[in-house]
Amino acid sequence: MPAYITLINWTEQGLRTVKETLNRAKAAEEALQAVGGRKIGVWWTQGPYDAVFIFEAPDEEVATRLLLATGMQGNTRTLTMRCFSEEEMARIIQGLP
């Protein structure tokens, strides 16, 4: 299943309601599970991003739909990257000339 790393920044609204951040993370995990995905982990961070969410989704359309639905709530802005496991990278490298 494809994996993704999402870097999260709170919006002004998200910061005003920061006490709900654990509930929002749980709701995101439940929405992900409902479509066959899996949370790998979530961490709240210091520095240029407020949190990091790593997850698997059945495909890119499902991942994008979930991220858009989360963004529509107005609490976060995200930057998401597709990431590859060692096994996936081994397959990619095998196809190189």
Q: Could you characterize what this model shows?
A:
This protein has one domain (3-83): Lrp/AsnC effector binding domain/regulation of amino acid metabolism (RAM) domain (Alpha-Beta Plaits), CATH 3.30.70. A hairpin with a 6-residue loop joins strand 2 and strand 3 (51-56). The protein is elongated. The protein starts with a strand and ends with a helix. The chain has 97 residues and is an alpha+beta fold. The protein has helices at residues 12-16, 21-34, 60-71, 86-94, and strands at residues 3-10, 38-44, 51-56, 76-83. InterPro entries: GYD/TTHA1554. This is GYD domain-containing protein.
Keywords:
97 residues, alpha+beta, 4 helices, 4 strands, 41% helix
How do the strands and helices of this protein lay out in sequence?
Elements: E1 3-10, H1 12-16, H2 21-34, E2 38-44, E3 51-56, H3 60-71, E4 76-83, H4 86-94
Antiparallel strand pairs: 1-3, 1-4, 2-3
Could you provide a short overview of the structure?
This is GYD domain-containing protein. It comes from Litorilinea aerophila. It is built from four helices and four strands.
- Total of DSSP H or I helical runs spanning 4+ residues: 4
List segments where confidence is low: pLDDT < 50 over at least 5 consecutive residues: none
Indicate the CATH class. Answer: Alpha Beta
Q: What's the CATH architecture?
A: 2-Layer Sandwich
On the 0-100 scale, what is the average pLDDT?
A: 96
